[in-house]
Every structure is written in C-alpha cells, then in structure tokens.
Amino acid sequence: MQTIGKVARVFPANPEKVLKAKDQLLSDFTALVSDAEQLLASTATYSGDTISGARARFKDTLDQFKTRVSDAQSSAINQLDQATAATQEYVRDNPWKVVGVAALAGALLSALLFNSRR
C-alpha cells in the first residue's frame, strides 16, 4: 500500500488537464524567450550607458529564467521517473492484484459494450 501512496502523490487527479497546461506554458515560455532574444539582438546597435546597463540586466534576467525553466523541467522528469519506478515496483510486488484489476476492468468494459449494443 505504501507504493500506491507514492504513485498517488506524484500523479495529478486530472492528467490531461495538466498536460494541456504544461504544453501551453512551455509554448508561452518558448515564445517569451524567443521574443526577448530578438529584442536583445535588435537593441545591440544602440549606444549609451543606460541602454547597455538595461540590456545587461535584461540578459541576466533572461539567463536566470532559462535556468529556472530547465530546472523545473528536470524536476518534472525526476518526478515522472519516480512514479514510473514506484509503479513498476508495485506491479513487480503484486502481479496477481494487477492482473485481477485488469481482468475486472476488461470484464466491466465488455459488459458495458455488450449492453450498449442491445
């Protein structure tokens, strides 16, 4: 039962919603980074201490942002790896329970499909 708790803590209640949000967030971050890099490149020809200082601060912030996104991605990958390992451990320790649940799910699905054809 301890393994099920590990898996439940890692996986969200609605994984499809989380995956959609993750994809949208990743898309938004990619667009932000791309736009910021274009902005830095387009202001490279401007001179002056104020512009140079602002560009340097912005570049530092962008680099920190990239690092944080990379760290978050690594963390998500580690959590997925932990969930996979916990699931594999549970299946290895309880093969007959898993087979029983799969058989029950198959029987219920068959019954539902059979009843819907009538």
Largest sheet: none
From the structure provided, what is the oligomeric state, counting identical versus distinct chains?
single chain
Spans of 5+ residues with little confidence (pLDDT < 50)? Answer: none
Counted up, domains total 1
Q: What is the H/E order?
A: HHHH
Proportion of residues in β-strands: under 5%
Q: How would you explain this protein's 3D organization?
A:
The protein is an all-alpha fold and 118 residues long. It has one domain (2-117). It has four helices and no strands. It has helices spanning 2-10, 15-42, 49-93, 95-117. It starts with a helix and ends with a helix. The model has no long low-confidence stretch (mean pLDDT 79).
Question: What features would you highlight for this structure?
Answer:
about 120 residues, mainly alpha, 4 helices
Could you give a quick summary of the protein structure above?
This protein is mainly α. It has helices spanning 2-10, 15-42, 49-93, 95-117.
Task: Describe the SSE topology.
Elements: H1 2-10, H2 15-42, H3 49-93, H4 95-117
Helix pairs in contact: 1-3, 2-3
